[in-house]
Amino acid sequence: QVVLVSGHLDSWDVGQGAMDDGGGAFISWEVLSLIKDLGLRPKRTLRLVLWTGEEQGGVGAKQYYQLHKENISNFDIVMESDEGTFQPSGLGFAGSAEARDIVKEIMTLLQPINVTDVYDTADGTDIAYWMRDGVPGASLRSDISKYFWFHHSQGDTMTVQDPNQMNLCAAVWTVVSYVIADMENMLPR
Description:
By secondary structure, the protein is α/β, with parallel strands linked by helices. It has a single domain, classed as 3-Layer(aba) Sandwich (Aminopeptidase). 37% of the residues lie in helices and 19% in strands. It is built from six helices and six strands. The chain has helices spanning 18-37, 59-68, 97-107, 128-132, 147-150, 163-182, and strands at residues 2-8, 45-51, 75-80, 88-94, 117-119, 137-142. Helix 1 (18-37) links the parallel strand 1 and strand 2 (45-51). Helix 1 (18-37) crosses helix 6. The longest helix has 20 residues, at 18-37.
């Protein structure tokens, strides 16, 4: 069984793609690093996917889906960060009402960093195939007030990234993915 965390690496048309979506790729990578450093071993596999071809019609996501859809019942949740890694506010979630209640409970663990909101929808070109077929999905929600200042521009460089905000985003991503991966049962569909 798999909990998938992800970001993509293909918005480097004019800038460096540090915010779109290098930040999402970084925090997803950080999930695995933090869990390993803490010596934790969840019951399910945590899988990192660094998508490509998102801007070209989601071709990387489509191919991944085609290769793995036969095991769709083993995908517990698919998570994609693609709205920058600014100050996080919560998680967008798509799934059953019962699964949403579980995710809301998980988010209470993030009260110390004041990131507890669960929004009604999850967004992500790269996880859309999975969500369409009933796999619960999650997307990081953060303060996007400055997102379009840098999106697909020469300004999308590492200087946009705030290490403290990225650490908070990584904390959210790590807590949610680890807890789901370590629960007795998969999220209800």
